[in-house]
Amino acid sequence: MIWLLRHAEAEDAHGRPDAERPLTEKGRAQARAAGAALKALGVPLDACLASPRVRARDTALLACEPLGLAVQLAPELSGGPFDPERVAAGFGDDVLLVGHNPDMVQAVHDMTGARVRFKKGALAAIADGELHVFLRPRELFALARD
Fold this sequence. Notes:
The chain is built from five helices and six strands; from the N terminus they run E-H-E-H-E-H-E-H-E-E-H. With 146 residues, it is of the alpha/beta class. It has one domain (2-145): Rossmann fold (3-Layer(aba) Sandwich), CATH 3.40.50.1240.
């Protein structure tokens, strides 16, 4: 199964390059909730690949911490359309990809035909051309508390 996590809320650029935008406090909480929810659901992730942009990299690091999973940087997730199956190939059966919009929305649509509103910090799971899971941040927070 391919899991897609959109980076959590980040600060505005404030004159710095877009790639260097850090997460806000809310964004750090969203990322931690995503990881706690994945752990609560018992998701057996084999790998996590993330955009090297700070907000996506840090989202991945915080989400993967409770899972004991290392994060590998994947430049193909840093912006622009990508093929999730190609990016995840060779990393196992269950791979988490952490990136940006509009790329995440497009990836879900390309793989399943579904149209979703992929908010910052949202999570989707796709297998065999079907959208199996779509969780918004508020749902991830609820799962993380359980």
